[in-house]
Amino acid sequence: MSNTSGKKRGITIAAGLLAILCMILVLMISCTSDRANDTRGISDAGGEGQSELSPGLSTESSTESTPPPAATPTQPEPEPSPEPEAGVEPEPEPEQEPEPEPEPEPEPEPPWLSFSPYSVADTDPLSEKLGYTYAVQAGGVTVENFMNPELIQFTSPENYTDIEGVLTFRGNNFRNSASYGTAKITEEKLTEVYRFNTGTLANWSGTAWTGQPAIIKWDFEVQQKMNLLPGKIDKEDLVEVIQGAVDGYVYFFDLEDGKPTRNKLRFGEPIKGGVTIDPRGYPILYIGQGDIKTTGRNGYYIYSLIDFERMYYINGTDKFALMTWGAFDGNPLFDIPNDRMILNGENGLIYNIKLNTIFDLDAGKISIDPDIVKYRYNTSTMKRRSMESSPAAFANYVFTADSTGFVQCVDLMTFTPVWVRDCTDDTDASPVLDWEEENGMLALYTACGVEYQGVGGLAYIRKLNAENGELLWEYTYPCLLDIAVSGGVLATPVIGRGDMSNLAIFWVAKVRNMSGGGVLVAFDKYTGEIVWETVLPCYGWSSPVAVYTDSGTGYLVVCDADSTMFLIRGATGQVLDKFRTGNNTEASPAVYGNMVVVGTRGCTMFCVRIS
To answer: What is the mean pLDDT of residues 197-219?
Structure first.
């Protein structure tokens, strides 16, 4: 090996050793720098915040250090709201939409708006078997087609009148009430308050069937314009009773004391069917004639109660009628918004009368100028074309019952028949309507007497569907045939309220298997089953009256032909008390509060308190 090669190898080794030494030196300097930094960090950490030591002790010599005081917590500083960028509008907060209000429940449609009657097979007036025909006369001329110019609309019986009292037979368009208000009854007794006498005319005496009085509490301003007697004309809260009698007079007296409120009105002919006061509270009195004894004519009369002027007379002996007897025992109804009176007569006509009333209260004057439309009908089986009962009405329909036994529904807007049902025999009891809310149905209650059936005849008591005349139930009682004094049902029934709300109550006369006495019977109005029967020793034609307490407890006032008035518990038929009237009481009572007013064939009027 040459020397040059050795020298080179030595230089290379020396250079490598020198590089290693440089690396070691760099590492040492780096470690020294790190230690210096650690020392500075400790010294900085122990600046002003360093803990104080006990005097004379150094850190090395101290074995325990005093703990630092607890730091007081501080609330964090709230973060500042970000400033909006210049020239940029902040976005508005979205508005919260309100909760939508629930929609109110729609009011149910009143039933008189939707009532739309029709006929079924056995009530079709156009059936060949029935042979029903009819005609209409307007303005004295027979017309092929008639249309009433205004919408006639009878609503619920509670809406019939705003006037306090009992203004027509059985009170309203349903013919379901002859009492006004409620009675405070604790002792369940009948006590006479007063009595006075009526008179006779020919063979008529006292008050007869139906003979219900009218009772009214007058508006004081109207009262001041009438021909009342001194001491009564200025009496506040005057309740006046008006009674038509078969002696040919109309009597006026104060319900409270029985004293006359006016002089008697001389009518001149027997009044059997009672009187009607205008349900608007107008001073008008409507009177039907019951027989011909002195004047030689027969008809219907309208009087002013301001001065007793006879305002109008309807001649019942009408050439358009198929019946020549022109009496009126039934009481009218009034379509108040349209100033119309609905009436039926013993001449077989139904009347739709526009009264055209003008009442000037300030001047104390009243007038009418009637326009009359008449409806007549006939059937192939008609026995007597007469209506002695009073009509009922709902919506624009009238319901009548006649002396052959046909109960029918007639449209007052067109004067056309809707349905007709043969109800067997003479029907003098007025039809009574009842709206059954739970069934959404209008019911009609009716009953007949025994006349054309002859010996062995039956009194049929029926509930019909007033929409189509369909029979819902019926019950029969065998009754005596008596041409002079009819057996069967002549009293208008009671359809109960309060604790009697499930009952339909009928007063049946001369029941054959009860020795010619009477039976007061309550049916379940939904099923037709008998709930109770009360047998009374004598029959009656007088219509029972339901009286109620504030709590809804029902009582019945029932009069018979043997001079007895009964107070009966409506829910059970229990006789609670009796009052002797002294004579046949075939007229029907009216009740105002606790006060019962009724007349007898013995020429006596009574006021009796239910206590």
So the answer is: 98
